[in-house]
Amino acid sequence: MHTSEDPVKLQPASGLATQEEAFTNPMVYRREDYVGAFRHLLIFAVDSSVLFFLLALIAMPFGDLLSNDPMPFVVPIWLIICWVYLAVIKPSRFRSVGYWIADARIITIYGKPPSPWRMTLRLMWAAMYLVPSFTVSIFTDLIWTTMNVERQMLRDLIAETRVIRNRAKPVGVGRVSRCLFTGLGIAVFYARIHPKTLTSDASTA
Question: pTM here?
Fold first, then answer.
């Protein structure tokens, strides 16, 4: 396992990122504002339960109307619902049930809500958990949250999204470096944020 990165020295600043800096520079948050492994697992478990409940709910009327297996009719409808729930509702102000319970939200590295297409990229990585030949699983991704300062899963680093506490506020701005991860039979580039300006409180925390 190997990662390559561009180091940068912290430069404490006297105040928060200005409004002009917001959405144009990568946002930096306190480590405790990033969602850790337990909350990641909680979100995954809750949202998976919601989606499987919806699958059962959709299948019930088809089971009454059809004598054969209803799943070929149900699964396409369910997949569309999954995409709407995970790629459209989840990053919106409504959030998913998992995000509500974990008191979390998802943003891009620039502090904006991610687009449905960026969420689709993130979702595609998660879908590969189901591929037997893919060496990265949800548990590998959870372990990854303990290995980086931002406590993010590898899929969020690749999609350039961050899962943070719902009321978290940025404490400064940073710059992005493209790091190479090689291991577990894969090689991928991901975005790491190097803090370059922080509040005085955050720099001494």
Answer: 0.78
Q: For residue 108, what are the domain limits? A: 2-204
Kind and range of the H or E element at 162? strand 161-165
Chain centre to alpha carbon of residue 69:
35
Alpha helices (runs of H) in 103-190, residue ranges in sequence order: 116-127, 138-144, 154-159
Instruction: Per residue of the chain (205 residues), give pLDDT as tens.
Output: 444 444 334 443 434 444 444 567 899 999 999 999 999 999 999 999 999 999 888 877 765 555 566 667 788 888 999 999 999 999 999 999 999 999 999 999 999 999 999 999 999 887 777 776 666 677 878 888 888 888 988 889 889 999 999 999 999 998 888 888 776 667 778 888 888 766 655 554 5
Number of domains in the chain: 1
With a CB cutoff of 8 Å and minimum separation 6, the contacts of 23 are: 110, 111, 112
